[in-house]
User: What shape does this take?
Amino acid sequence: MPAPTLTQNEIDQITIELARQTNLVASLTQAVPNNTARVAELAIVDGGYKKFFDYYNTNIIGKYDAERKALDGQFINSPIAEADIIGPATLNTTIRTTPTAPSTTMIRVSQFDGTPLVYTASNETQGITDQIAMEVALVSGFGSGAGLSGTTRTASIFNSASTSINITDSAFNFNPSINDVFVIYSGGDAGIIRINSIVDGGEIISPYTQVWGVTVLVNPSGTIASNASLTTFGGFNNTERTSKVASNSNLQPIMMSLIASLETAINLRISQLAVQTIALNTNEDPDAASQISSTLVNVSTSSSNLTDYLVTTLISDSGLTTLSTERGVRSPQISARVSQIVNNYTNQTENYYDKRYSYANNRGNTASGSLRLQKVAEQAEAAITSYKSTAEDSVTSLTNILNV
Assistant: This one.
């Protein structure tokens, strides 16, 4: 069966449509580079606004945020970021700052004003708290226990994950109390526990048993098998601490563990002082030059003192006095610096939270924002390219049918 034949009327109309689509392709071909140039122009405009947004958000507020987190562990879990501007600019309603029409102004979420805050223990203040605890434990222990005998033994394993321990004594009906502290030791390993609950076995004759709910204060290095011994721990005297040798050899692992924990606390402080140094050196707050200079001196002094201390980690009376003196100076410095930072967010020559929001809205405003205008131009470019492709397909189709 022969192929259909076009009528003259059909040929004429197809020819007219082919000319129209060809002209449209030519027009769109010219429009693409024009729109590309427009996108580039708007990107330059937005780049100017972005410089100011980054200045307030990253170079000032961000530096204060990082410094405060290192000082006392308080920080914003989801800080304002570029995504909070791109969202409104692209009308992405899943982004927290995108307004609901007819509103065009970006939503001023709480993070623009530095809330809510969350906490991390990786900070200098926590390091000082941990450091004090270890200093006190080396001198005075964790408190004392009573009511046991030399024949009291564990009847279950003990390790760093223990939350309960079985205790037995074949000859003595022991009588410890809640919050009593004991050392459990065997085979050169030892750890310290505090009793937080006691379940008496109820025996009136030997062997006497109890189950203790415990908090591990000092971890053993491994797992201590059952039948381990128990003793009290009231700290080490100056002679022991000077030589770093416990007179009771069973307590030597405890001394070494406390020293290691003390060094861990000090190293935490040193690492957070380093974070503060970076934040201070890169903070561009024009009103805070004097504050930053004096704060850097304080940070450097503490860092140097702690680093020097770790060379030998002296835990004698004189060594611990060195730590106490440094802490006595540094702790009020931390409190004062946190107060300065909180003040500087809003009470410098400019309110930095306000300026950050203003430049964010200047970019992401859904009607007039510089980034919004750029995104509209980008969308137009994509649409023109798509229309051009469709028109080109139409030209090909129309040409083919005329050539049948």
